[in-house]
Structures are given as C-alpha cells and as structure tokens.
Amino acid sequence: MTYFLVYLLLMNIITFIEMGHDKGQAKKGGRRVPEKRLFMFAALGGGIGGWLGMRVWRHKTKHTSFVIGMPLLVALNCICVILIAIYM
Fold it and tell me: Any stretches that span the bilayer, and where are they (predicted)?
C-alpha cells in the first residue's frame, strides 16, 4: 500500500508540474505539452495534481474538455483508490 501511495503522490506532482510548465510555455510561445499527455497523467492517478494545476496557474480553465474532464478524472481516481484499498 505504501508503494501505491508514493505512486499517487508522484503522479500528482508530475501532473501539477506539467500543467505549470505548459502554462509557462504558452506565455513564452514555446513548445507546448500535448493535451493528450496532460490527460494521460491525470488518468494514471494525477487527477488532483491536474485539477490543482488548473486552479493555481489558471490554465486550461476555458477548455470545456479540461473543466469537465479533470474533475471526472479526480472522481475516477478516488473510486480506484477506494476499490484498491478495499481489496488490498
């Protein structure tokens, strides 16, 4: 269970950092992080980090796919964590 919690923590940190990096690149006109990658990290356990990244950096807040998708992925992540905790 400890490894699983460390995994979740790392995924959320990575997703949060990626959101911040993408916002920075958007401001500079640099190479952006693909939306597919942001959603992949969120789906693999980093939903809270993605949602927090949206709020902290006010990034992707006008994209319907992110406004709806990130909270749904947070809910999915929570359901998965609960199910894993029950069956471990």
Answer: 38-54, 66-87
| pTM of this structure | 0.93
Q: Alpha carbon of 53 to those of 40, 68, 72: distances in Å?
A: 15, 14, 15
pLDDT tens track for 27-80 = 999 999 999 999 999 999 999 999 999 999 999 999 999 999 999 999 999 999
Q: Which of 49, 51, 54 is nearest to 13 (CA)?
A: 49
